[in-house]
Amino acid sequence: MSHANLMNNYFNPNLVYTEEDFRHRLQMRRHVFERLLRYVQQVNPYFQQKRDRAGRPSFSPHQKVTITLRMMNYGSPVDSMDETHGMSESTCLDTLEQFCDTILQVYKDEYLREPNQEDLNRLIHKAEDRGFPSMIESLDCMH
Q: Would the CA dihedral through 110, 38, 31, 71 be positive or negative?
């Protein structure tokens, strides 16, 4: 039921919430969410739909990624996910850990690295255009 509500609200053709609602609540555009969902499903079998021991469908990939993003975006406590999404605290924590590990695996080489000279030049140019000419020198985040 939780999966059906999520799909009806945000993903099905006759969705309840607009693109702006989606962006506001999940802090990203729907197409970015869907691309992220595809990547985590391809890389980590944890995010593929399975059946539990009783033969019922387990949490959907959409549910797992949405719940993880809500915990990360809003600092939502894991016990609140049980009340709103029916996901236990231990499953929430497992899902968060699996998601973070997968994101590291997928994006580490591209985004989680020290900036190269091309990156720095692009950032300096962007900062100068916005009126912050010595932005890079003021940041000491590389240590």
A: negative
